[in-house]
Amino acid sequence: MRECFEVRDTDAGGRIGELTVPRADVTVETPALLPVINPNLDTIAPRRLATEFGAEILITNSYIIHETEDVRERALEDGLHELLEFPGAIMTDSGSFQLSEYGDIDVTTEEILEFQREIGSDIATPVDIPTPPDVDRERAEAELETTQERLELAETVETGDMLVSAPVQGSTYPDLREAAGRHADSTSLDVFPVGAVVPLMNDYRYDDMIDVVAAAKRGLGADAPVHLFGAGHPMMFALAAAMGCDLFDSAAYALYARDDRYLTVRGTRHLDDLDYLPCSCPVCTEHSPDDLRALPDDERESELGAHNLHVTFEEIRRIKQAIRAGNLLELVEQRARAHPTMLDGYRTLLDHAAQLERSDPVSKGSFFYTSAESARRPEVLRHHRRLERLAVPDSLLVTEGSSPRGDEYDDSWRVEPPFGPFPRSLSKSYPLTAEVPDRTDREALEAAADGVARLAAANPDADITLGHRGWPTGVLGRLPANVAVIDLSDTQT
Ligand SMILES: [Zn+2]
């Protein structure tokens, strides 16, 4: 077990966890948001982040501090906590982002780690190489090798009780990300940022982002706290949390505020385009859009920054509650409807249903079938796997209708989209208690047919008959030839 992190609750790949940060003497509940603080300009003072927004942790850039003389002197003399006036945990980035933007920085991993310790950082970051998406494989491999050397070097630096992060790189090559995750996990380092995903998010490539995170997670193992580095927009937090990301940092709240952009969980709006403020935070209840537009630039930026942050923290709380209640994927389904690329992200997440299934609880409160994608949720996959282990009599009717009288069959099971067949004794157990719309969709019927096919494949000697209510021919075509079919829709049974 990794000592600094403990998982308390899970739902799909999402989890509520506790990250113990010994140097700050605080325990941060995850999923957590780390507002990004630029030591040279704060849109919202760090103290306000703690008192007004409940921030338990923030992130700032040690390279900027290192390169700005007066800030450096004050950080070395008074420490980061006093410099920023923040009582929670402080994570520091190393300048890798500057490296990716400007191609060069003038510190080594040892220097920047020692500097981070000297200024009182609670979670430090070595200088890794953030390899962008889509580079050729040779470059991705070579840069990953350098990153891995830096991580091994970081292990040897005397860092006291400061936690140290181990970024996972590998560009858009899933096998490299997985290998990078496995290597990072084998070090003694503590927190695992999935790096260089900002270009993917900037281009709305949420499908590729999910593949990258899923691959890193396969390498990292279940007890590693995972940080989605540079993930700033609350719109995609639920999706990323469902794939198993525990820490998010947000510079977006401040950067967007600077451009008069107003964050919502369904996307970004420009203040000029808003006739109403669709939010109940203190900023939006006290101002109209006209009031905000009339404010002097710096005040407007600060008010918009506060709104953006309220929305962002609210989404984190909503995600935690969804994990606790076992309906995180239903929240992801709602968010997926906000933008076609988010839907791509959700569909990609479901490509990893087998991976999510490992951490998904066996029993939860409810399963609401709220979109065609619900047919691919991990609970459906798990039921299909369970079908292979159930004892089946010689002759079995699986039916959407009631149990037949007489002894034509040895037993009769129910069939429900999207799960497929199950013994009637399981009717009251999760997820078979699911709420499914009466006007079901093709995906649910297909998943049910796949369940029947799986049962038939596991029991080749059994005579299985399906009683269905008007399933389309294409759906029935998914069944093997040895399953007999009765259409109940015209027989009233
Ligand atoms: Zn608001």
UniProtKB/TrEMBL annotation:
Active site per UniProt: 93 (nucleophile)
Role description: Exchanges the guanine residue with 7-cyano-7-deazaguanine (preQ0) at position 15 in the dihydrouridine loop (D-loop) of archaeal tRNAs.
Main EC class the enzyme belongs to: transferase
Cofactor note: Binds 1 zinc ion per subunit.
Catalytic activity: guanosine(15) in tRNA + 7-cyano-7-carbaguanine = 7-cyano-7-carbaguanosine(15) in tRNA + guanine
PANTHER family linked: QUEUINE TRNA-RIBOSYLTRANSFERASE
InterPro entries named in the record: ArchSynthase1/Queuine_TRR, TGT-like_sf, TgtA, tRNA_ribo_trans-like
EC number: 2.4.2.48
Domain of life: Archaea
Keywords carried by this UniProt record: Glycosyltransferase, Metal-binding, Transferase, tRNA processing, Zinc
Family: Belongs to the archaeosine tRNA-ribosyltransferase family.
Domain tRNA-guanine(15) transglycosylase-like: 13-340
Cofactor list: Zn(2+)
Protein name, as recorded: tRNA-guanine(15) transglycosylase
Source species: Natronorubrum tibetense GA33
Any single biological process term in GO: tRNA wobble guanine modification
Pathway involvement of the protein, from the record: tRNA modification; archaeosine-tRNA biosynthesis
Gene Ontology terms for molecular function: pentosyltransferase activity; zinc ion binding
Binding site for Zn(2+): 279, 281, 284
NCBIfam families, per database record: arcsn_tRNA_tgt, tgt_general
UniProt: substrate binding residues: 128, 196
GO cellular component, one term: cytoplasm
Keyword Metal-binding annotated: yes
One Pfam family, short name: TGT
